[in-house]
Amino acid sequence: MKIKTTALVMALALMLCSCAADVAENGQVKNNGIISEEVNCINTTDERVYLDGLPIQAAEAGGKTVISLSSLEKYGFVVSEADGAVKVTTDYMPEGFAGEDVQAAEPGVKIADTVDSSAQVYINGVKIEAYFTGLEVYVPAAELGELTDDYNREFGYSDYNFNCEYDAGTKTLRLNAFRFPELDSEKIIAEREALFCNKEFELYTEGDSSEGVYFGAKSEPVSGVLAGMISDGNGNIYEGKPKIFENSFGCWSNYMEFDQRSHQMTMPLAKDIDDYNCVLCIPWNTSDITQVYECTDYMKETLDSIAEYKKPVIIRFAAEMNVSNLGDSPAAYVKAFRFVADYIHNNYPDMAVMWSSNDAGALNRPMSLYYPGDEYVDWIGVSSFLKRDFMGDPNTGRNAQLFFYVGDYAWGQLSLRYLFDFMAENNIHKPVAISEGGVVTSMPYDSTNIDDWAIPRLRSMYWYVPMCYPEVKLITYFNLTREEEVYGFSVEDKPEYVDIMEEAFREGPYLTEYPSEPKFAFVKADGHISTGGVLPLYTYSYIPEEYTLSVSYSVDGSKLAEVTDIPYKYELDTASMADGKHILTVDVNGEQTKDSYSYVLEKKGGAVEISWEG
Question: Does pTM surpass 0.90?
């Protein structure tokens, strides 16, 4: 919510009335939680300040040049008040704005008296010293742009998202604000068209489990995909909720809230964890990235508590920064993440650290702004939910579907494409987790039966993802529906969905225990040599804005099978084949499209080599 200047003044006045001053023993005032020299008044100044090249009105407080939040609001900043705090976030500079009409002033003339307050002021999520007059709030201009350490200098901006230059001769301070990239919708559409609007096909088979991808990260299975579930996602006998899945899970995910200082696992996992051979994933959520520097005692208490369970552990800290206020200041986010990662790696060397973004994210917040560096990250995570609509709009248009991977473009393998492009561009080689994932199963605003839409997408999540991306070593299903949210992902009353997942766990390369070994690893059929007498075939087929209705398999012109569900599996009997060359034809039948692909099967003795023909 954006508060206009008059509303902001009223909000501040009310807030100040309700906030008692904090005074330290030495008589200094604790403004905004930061001890500073007592400042009695705001004065005029002959210092000049420019923000992004435009003049802005300046003042003086305690020997510092300050600017007001109401002035900042005019320069493309959103000022809001909530929960006893004033929050300023950077937006875009208004078009045509030429800056405030700043008149020369004789320095030292009192503008207003200051009042003591414990109200907090945040600039892009980072606490800053502030001076209150009852009608206005001032912040030090130079501190906004101070590059305090090596990372700030490398990034080029402060934790507050500014940099500055000062010219003592002219008494001029020039502030520059970091602003997120402006959106070019035509360019984004073109990029999405290139990513999602081409037919795709690949034939897979089963390789030995040793043919899987392995990075050697802590808590990473050598081969296979950990079947993951949130802590209360398979019933809760302590609340009278029966189990949903017959199998166990190779990874259990238990949320802890940094803000609430929670440090114990919740039921039922806290009581049952000893019964499971599993990895323990801890999503450690926070709404204030900078509080970590003041919370090492809490961090130690929490990590000690988790270590007592004696399970392989992955700590997923401060996730989804590219869709939340955690990402308002990229520099502050990276520095805080590095601080926590260092603390964990130095004190709990057996625990892994996961950096986890959202798959689509805000269009102007690329993942590259927030990646802390390979030495701080053991796992790459991603939240990837397959949704029919964008923001609960049943009339979501094609562009929005392309922008945010919803509707026709909500497929498990497509939702990861942006992440893997980012990893390739930055030469990142880490195990990947769908740290939170699911398929929409209910929409309170729309009672339409969406099974025909959702079921193929659930199959794509559990079959196409490990086919296309062998780097994915964990998929955690977010088996939950919250009353206050626009979508539900629970499969509790969806037995067909449960059956699809259990089939994947049973027949696919999944691990329902850790450590263990999968039945196989997916490998591309082209170039593979099969010696088992039976050649398992799986087809990956994607036709933009169209469903693949069936896949047919033929050998030497004789049709052997037609399969209608992802992963379109067929077990070809090669033991009875004569030696020599044979042609395997794979026919893909879409709603409107029909395509054929051919492979050569060359049998010599008991071995069959597969090669692409076209």
Answer: yes
